[in-house]
Amino acid sequence: MKPAVIIDLNSGNLLSLENALNRDGQAVCRIQKPSAYDFRGDEILVLPGQGRFAFISERMDVLGWRSFLSDWLNQGGHLVGICVGMQILFEGSDEDPEAPGLGYFSGRCQHLKHPKTPMVGWAKLDSYKLNMKDQYAYFVNSYGVPDCDASTAKVTYGQPFCAAVQKGRVYGFQFHPEKSGRFGRELLQHVCQ
Amino acid sequence: MFVNKHNSDLTARIIPCLDVAAGRVVKGTNFKQLVDMGDPVTLAKKYERQGADELVFLDIKASVDKQPSALAMVRDVAMNLSIPFAVGGGIKTMDDVHRFFHAGADKVTLNTMAVAQPELINQIATQYGSQSIVVAIDVNREANGDLAVYTHGGSQRSALDYRLWLQEVVDRGAGEILLTAMHKDGTGSGFDCDLLADFGPDYPIQVIASGGANKPEDFYDAIKAGADAVLAAGIFHRDEYTVADIKEYLIIKNIHMRTIL
């Protein structure tokens, strides 16, 4: 089984994610810089993120991930982005308009058009994918990407937005699969195969 | 009746609350006579299986036995739970907050310290995001009808004006408010729906109602009045109802609930 490498941008709690990935004996490690791991190219990179878009964007540069990930994505590498880790795969966010995203998916994050933010809690996924269809996922976000041709699941909070995106082996989840009960754990393990 | 004003797929949350002392779940009406209710992980998993949307752990003796047991418990829970959980009790500094997050907590709950040192709310919101900070407000309707804010587990009346304090908490970046109506707590007469109705559909953050849940109808009334989530303890710990029982009732009443497939 391919090892999962968690990108640790020092954005807080990684224990749940690590634990969710660890379940069926998958090798999991966390690293801060690309140079800290001897990549073979068959790893699954997991990019979690919480906090501000600009913080993640800045960490990308400081720790050397931006150019590494651009190459990784161009070469068809396997990657799973979660929450702000999904948002950073887009071009940018209205949260911090100056901070660049990785631009792998086209589109920008916008502030959700609902008076109560952050959105906190569970919402049923509108998805054509059998492993997500009608499942409840746990969301914690104030920003979202309204639409994207790579969208695989949507939910509505003030407006519809992308709950999940996928292009090839690059997956993004706006919700937290590691906090979404058994469904989320199974989904995470599925996309990390 | 605000529930459907804005388009939202979000479900109302049911949140069991567990009181913890020295790493065990306890119950008791005061600090002296604590009855051991069991192991936090075992109980947490039980509620997760019942369909709890989130859990809150309050370390009621944190200031007495310091934090090692609380941190070990948080780590243990984080390793075994796959739904979010908040921890509160004994958080005094940003260092405490860092420790809890690194041990695997998703959110921290501040009550007394939010009042004593409101700057902590800003600091947590800035570093970890608003979603990671829940401010608990214990409000009591005094004999003269005034609404007073209490701290120290409901034992000390503060000088705060309730409505100004709500506004300040929001302005400082709290992600959610956990509102306990002390005059309803433990009475079994339901939540204070008038207090909940004050928030309205355009209130800028979510409100978790707490205090007084005794039967499924109380949950329904709180959500209808405007609560985004409902927290309860005794009704679940005494096995009067499971979380699933409550949800089943609410679904029949057309409240949107998360179910486990």
Description of the structure:
The complex is a heterodimer of chains A (193) and B (261). Chain A is α/β, with parallel strands linked by helices. Chain A has a single domain, classed as Rossmann fold. Chain A has helices at 15-22, 53-62, 65-74, 84-87, 181-191; strands at residues 4-7, 28-31, 44-47, 78-82, 92-93, 108-111, 119-124, 126-127, 136-141, 143-144, 151-157, 159-167, 170-173. Chain A has an eight-stranded mixed sheet. The longest helix of chain A has 11 residues, at 181-191. Chain A starts with a strand and ends with a helix. The mean pLDDT of chain A is 94. With 261 residues, chain B is α/β, with parallel strands linked by helices. In chain B, helix 1 (40-50) packs parallel to helix 3 (68-80) and helix 9 (216-225) packs across helix 11 (243-252). The longest helix of chain B is centred in the N-terminal third of the chain and has 13 residues, at 68-80. The two termini of chain B are 29 Å apart. The A-B interface holds A 12-13, 15-16, 19-20, 50-52, 114-124, 126, 134-136, 138-142, 155-159, 176, 178-185 and B 6-11, 13, 48, 53-54, 75, 78-79, 82-84, 101-106, 127-132, 175-176, 201-206, 228-229, 258-261.
The tally of beta strands of chain A, per DSSP, is: 13
CATH structural fold name of chain A: Rossmann fold
> CATH architecture of chain A, please?
3-Layer(aba) Sandwich
Rg over CA atoms of chain B: 17 Å
> What value does the average pLDDT of chain B take?
90
Instruction: Give the class-level CATH name of chain A.
Output: Alpha Beta
Number of strands of chain B: 12
Secondary structure category of chain B: alpha/beta
